[in-house]
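lol ok so funny story. i was supposed to be doing the assay writeup but got distracted and ended up predicting the structure for this chain instead. priorities right. anyway since i did it might as well share w the group, maybe its usefull for someone
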Amino acid sequence: MKIINDIMATRLLFFIMAFFVGLWTIRIPTIKDQINTDYFGIGLVMATFAIGSIIAMVFANNIIKMSSARTVLLYTSILQALLWLPTPFIPSLLIFMIFSFIFGLCYGSFEISCNLYASNLEKREKKSMMSGFHAFWSLGVLIGSITTSLFLEWNISFLNNVIVYVIILLPLNIFIVLRLHIDRIENSKNKTNIFFIWPLLIFLLALISMVNALTEGSVDAWGALYMRDFIKVDGFLIGLATVSFNIFMVIGRLSGDWIRDRIGVYNFLTILSLTSIISLFILYTFDNILAAVCGFALLGIGTSAIIPIAYSLAGKAKGIDSGAAIAIVSIAVYGTFMGAPATLGIVANNYGVNSIFFPILIILLFILPIIFASKKLFKQ
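and the output, tada:
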């Protein structure tokens, strides 16, 4: 019974963490106008968030060992929620970048703790569960983005939007964290920091996670702007990118553990990568709302299970502490967010917001042969 409670609590933590991401993705056009910046400026905001996340992730595993996962989850979740309250009043890009950096510190610590906790539950149950946990993350983004889109449609202010979410979600988050059964994370006696020569599998997982983060992050950062500025819609329709993407990401993640156990990691990764390639081509090429919805839906499927698979395999990898392995994958993800948004912002400024999908498409075409060449490694 305690395991069931732990599993459900972990799912809800992923959900709440992502609900605020849904708020962020839909309110990006609002924030862009609020701080009077361009696409490159939004890219810088993303980059400072990523820098904060990476710094936190480098030290998170040791902090968790010195205190506990519960302590880290509790304090970072409280601080993240409270940081949202002054956000609607931030007047400039520079101040917003400072806030974004602090957000990153909190989010990075929270994510490492949450994924490490989930990995230990998965090992204890001796079955694939990580994709299911991340399905609740996608569900949180989905419901958060739908709710925020409705707030936009009803002309509810950014400030009131934030206040409602904090009042509801912060107490719930605290209650869930305090109900976690396992206080300390189990760790192996393998190498416990990230500064050594990684096992080949960890290197490959980090590489694949970077590409997936670039793809998934393009929707979070640019989806609403793509709908407004390229597809030329407004109101609730601005949120269709995030909504369609996350509906199908939820479907992909809810079914991901089941599919992975039946067709194998290698076959599953290949199918997901090919699906992402097709979707990116659609989003880059066509400028109507039907193509956009279909493209984002396919992209949701294509990116759905890759990062959960990476976390799951990293947590079980031999020759490395599970916390260090998960930190490496997370740093790869947020390292991508550090440089990519600003670069994609330059692309968007010069060639149009739809052009951000073209370089991602090219990178995926180069990564696919690496996956093919690593077939034996994934079948270990």
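DSSP finds 14 helices and no strands in the chain. The two ends are 33 Å apart (CA to CA).
back to the writeup now i swear
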